[in-house]
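#struct-help
A.M.: can someone run this one for me? Single chain, 197 residues.
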Amino acid sequence: MRVHVDPESADSTSFYRLLTATVVPRPIAWVSTRSADGTDNLAPHSFFTISAVTPPVVQFTSVGRKDTLRNVEETGEFVVNLAPEALFERINATATDFPRGVSEFDACGIEREPSLRVRPPRVARSPVALECELHSTLRIGDSTVVFGRVVHAAVDESVLVDGHPEVTLMRPLSRLGRNEWGTLGGIQEIAREPHRP
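D.P.: on it. C-alpha cells below:
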C-alpha cells in the first residue's frame, strides 16, 4: 500500500522534506562568492549538477534569496569547490545563516587561496575547484537556478590517477534527507553495452 501526497494540498515544508529525502544522494556545490564590497562568502548548495559540456556549464539552485545568489548577481562570478569528507563539520558550519557582511571563511576558519580567472577565492583544502562566470539565472517559484560557465578548473595533483580525478581520493560528500549526509561508500563498475542490431 502506498501513501499518496498531493503537492497542491501538502504544506511546502513537508513536501520539501519528501523531495530531499527521495532525490538522493545529491552532490554538494560548496560555492564561494565575493560581494560587490569585497566580502567573501561560502555556502553549500545541494541542488547541483552539470548543465552542458560544450560549453562547460554547471548549475546550482538557491532556495530563497541567499547571499550566494546576491553576490553572483552583483559580480557575475563564483567558484564551485568540491565538498570533501575531511571537511564535513566545516562545510556544515558554512550553512549557518550568518548576517550579510560576515565571511564564512573567517567565521569558520577556512583557508582561502586565490582563483586564477575569477575574483572569489577557492577553498584551499578542496581537491577540485571550478571557477565560473555567470551564464544566466532562471527563477522558478521561490528558487533561482544559477548557471555558470566554467572558465577554469583547478585539481589537486594528489587526487589524480593517470590524469583523471579519482573519486576514492576526492572523497566527496553528498546530502540526503533531514540532517543526513552521505559518504562515498561502495563503488560498482559496469561498462555501457552498445546496441548491436
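A.M.: thanks! Residues 12-22 form the longest helix (11 residues).
D.P.: also worth noting: The chain has a mean pLDDT of 96.
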